[in-house]
UniProtKB/TrEMBL annotation:
GO molecular function terms listed in the Swiss-Prot or TrEMBL record: 1,5-anhydro-D-fructose reductase (1,5-anhydro-D-mannitol-forming) activity; nucleotide binding
Residue ranges occupied by any Gfo/Idh/MocA-like oxidoreductase N-terminal domain in the UniProt entry: 2-120
Keywords linked to the UniProt accession: Oxidoreductase
Keyword check for Nucleotide-binding: no
Provenance organism: Hartmannibacter diazotrophicus
Pfam families for the chain: GFO_IDH_MocA (PF01408), GFO_IDH_MocA_C3 (PF22725)
UniProt xrefs under PANTHER family: BILIVERDIN REDUCTASE A (PTHR43377:SF1)
Protein name stated in the entry: 1,5-anhydro-D-fructose reductase
Entry's EC annotation: 1.1.1.292
The GFO/IDH/MocA-like oxidoreductase domain, residue ranges: 130-248
Length: 332
């Protein structure tokens, strides 16, 4: 059992506490209240000790790991501090806001010999795992292109002054909140991108950041990918991959606060169509338990460092492209 402390009991921190309540692999035993505590009721219900600083938990030999559900710009310093203290660290997405920061964080964890988990839970959807298998095993033929769209209007009602609406914390119209999940999926399916073009628009939300983003990537392995993400329409997640032998569409009704099914529809060259539905699985818990297994020496963490870096390289290129209006080439 991995014993963890959590930093940041906001929306997502509370979600994680709830999801990990009955886990046999990771137990949250301490929480650091930074700014908006106290969280006495939640802590009492879940057997979590409050009232300590980050330095306290880093010095606590009873703590094996840190979970970070804090504003994005704090992630680098907090991950580096955890690594220096010899703690495994699970950091929510985006891992970092720049490639330089992500590289430094990964280097710090490697040097300290600790596992770095990241909140890309969408990889743990059963339908996504199936889709990944189809692509990797050439079931779809040559992949021509893929498209995806993701939205959640949770942020519509938060004040424009909330950190999640700031262009620094959440650049390129919420790429860091929504689009990055799709980028992670494309990196997982098709590997690194060699060039990126992005545009943002400003439709309904106040503030300097825009509320809808579109991104086209050319992947080194060949396919073009296209994503749309917004902060202002009701929740949806749609994903489609088009190959010369078949195309596949993935739909998902899952919301972090509710439960929904997902489905994969495949249409083959000969016109046959097949649809599979998948029951809801707790992908947040699956990701944290995979992290716990890696930290306790069970098996490797399934999101490789190289892919964590590629996702942040694309994020950085999206921000640059949206600002300049030019395509951005990625090297290395
Ligand atoms: N994987 C996923 O699907 C999701 C991931 N996330 C990620 O989780 C992280 C947290 O997001 P979310 O929970 O929505 O954010 P919230 O604003 O709801 O919570 C952030 C918490 O961080 C703490 N905090 C520390 N310093 C600051 C500061 N300077 N300003 C504000 N809060 C601070 C506070 O904790 P306290 O109350 O304990 O003081 C606060 O409640 C982000 O990185 C986000 O991208 C978010 C949603 C879904
Ligand atoms: O930050 C976020 C906002 O909500 C989305 C889902 O509803 C999350 O997936 C995302 O990580």
């Amino acid at each position: 059992m991995l014993r963890a402390a959590i930093l940041g009991l906001g929306w997502w921190g509370k979600t994680i506490v709830g999801r990990m309540k009955d886990s046999q692999k990771l137990r949250i035993v301490r929480a650091v209240e930074l700014s908006t505590g106290p969280h006495a009721e939640l802590a009492a219900e879940n057997g979590i000790a409050l009232g300590c600083s980050y330095d306290d938990v880093l010095a606590d030999p009873e703590i094996d790991a840190i979970i970070l559900t804090t504003p994005n710009s704090l992630h680098r310093a907090q991950v580096e501090a955890a690594a220096r203290a010899g703690k495994h660290v699970f950091c929510e997405k985006p891992l970092a806001l720049t490639l330089e920061d992500a590289e430094a964080m990964i280097a710090a964890c490697r040097e300290a010999g600790v596992i770095l988990g990241v909140g890309h839970e969408r990889r743990f959807e059963l339908a996504m795992i199936e889709l990944r298998w189809m692509v990797a095993n050439d079931e779809l033929g040559t992949i021509m292109h893929a498209e995806a769209a993701f939205s959640h209007d949770k942020l519509v009602n938060v004040p424009a002054t909330d950190w999640r609406r700031s262009a620094v914390e959440s650049p390129a119209a919420g790429m860091t909140a929504m689009g990055i999940h799709l980028t992670d999926a494309f990196v997982n399916l098709f590997g690194p991108a060699e060039s990126v073009y992005a545009a943002t628009a400003h439709r309904v939300l106040d503030g300097e950041n825009g509320d809808v983003v579109s991104v086209i990537c050319r992947h080194k392995s060949g396919p073009l990918t296209y994503l749309n993400a917004t902060l202002a329409t009701p929740l949806y997640l749609h994903f489609a991959v088009f190959g010369t032998r078949a195309w596949v569409e993935f739909r998902n009704e899952t919301h972090p606060d509710t439960v929904g099914n997902s489905s994969l529809t495949v249409r083959f060259q000969d016109g046959c169509t097949a649809t599979w539905t998948f029951d809801w699985t707790d992908t947040v818990k699956a990701n944290l338990e995979a992290f716990a297994e890696a930290a306790t020496g069970g098996r490797p963490y399934p999101i490789p460092d190289e892919e964590k870096l590629q996702t942040i390289a694309i994020l950085e290129a999206v921000v640059r492209s949206a600002m300049t209006g030019n395509a951005v080439k990625l090297d290395g």
